Amino acid sequence: MNAQTSLTWLENDSPRSALWRSDQVLPKQVVLADDTMTADTAFRLACAGTGLLWRSDFQNARQMLQALTRRIDKPKKVRVKKHDPAAPHLPGNVFHTHRQAQAQRTRILSQVLIELDGDYAIALRRAPDAKQACIQAFGPANGQPSVVSLRSLQGAIGAFEWRKNGVEVPAMGEALRIYPHYGVFSPVRGEYVALVANAPLPEAFSSTPVAFDIGVGTGVLTAVLARRGAGRVVGTDTSERALACALDNLQRLGLQNQVELFHTPLFPAGLAAVVVCNPPWLPARATTLLEQAVYDEGSQMLKGFLSGLAPHLCPGGEGWLILSDLAEHLGLRTREALLAWIAEAGLVVLGRLDVKPVHGKSRDESDPLHAARAAETTSLWRLGVAG
Known about the structure:
Elements: E1 6-11, E2 14-20, E3 29-33, H1 39-47, E4 50-54, H2 58-73, H3 91-109, E5 112-116, H4 131-138, E6 146-149, H5 150-165, E7 167-168, E8 177-178, H6 191-198, H7 204-207, E9 210-214, H8 220-227, E10 232-237, H9 240-252, E11 259-263, E12 272-277, H10 300-309, E13 313-324, H11 326-329, H12 335-344, E14 347-355, H13 370-375, E15 378-385
Parallel strand pairs: 2-6, 3-4, 4-5, 9-10, 9-12, 10-11, 12-13
Antiparallel strand pairs: 1-2, 5-6, 7-8, 13-15, 14-15
């Protein structure tokens, strides 16, 4: 989000403006909305890209958002031409159709807007006290009024609760918890953490107990590596939010003295016995802050990790690539392409550990991507330098 972006509207015949605190695009225009507006009218305006700045009961704004959601999620009949080569039943087309629908859904639902005062107070009846949640998500208000989508505000409040209560990560042992920050992907899929916790360490690790965590996120894999005996773990990320989140978690776990964190893309300087990377698994464009942990347009991070890995491995060191094959089942990437990128980088596959996901979507037959999710396998690829 660009903190300097302003939203403008007309109210009581006077122009108004406030900072735009959302990672969604600005509405094309803004109208005032309240309890007198029907859901059908709101839906028509939201579909046209008009922001609805709410001016009455906060809980009714939530009900309006629910009404818009019901209209979007109403089942639609899809007509497919018998011999259409781009028919939606093909895996890649199903994914792209699903992504387009999700993007449209997000755009429409983000049109319900809430104004925040200069201290993040919400001047609406029955509004929650979201000041601390907003400070954690957006930084200090500095006395400036702002506008946020109700969906973003709900996300900030939800992230505040995640950060307060934490997420239990059984693979770390002793029922330890990780505390995600706003905009940093939560390690709710614990199977990939278990892979890093259980993979055999290379012999080089005993003489060079140094590990790199590329794309540190919450710091969960950095913590696993430190607890497995790494005397020094270097975590990198391009997100300041992620680096702050990782530092917070590592301090809570008492591991901060074993870890260095750097704001840099991909690799730090030096060599390591283990270099771990859990890149976004799907080659598609991210449209929100959180989606950056899931979607990697053009597989840029994956390719960057592979092409730059060899010069950062000490003799006998290994790169551990954590990757789901969901993209393969969706027709977005082939196994042959992945193996070709590995070979072109001067790497060889030393082994692979696989695990089936246990998250709810893998069993949800109503999910348009159910067939691919049900077939998904998450793998830790053990990579070494060829020759």
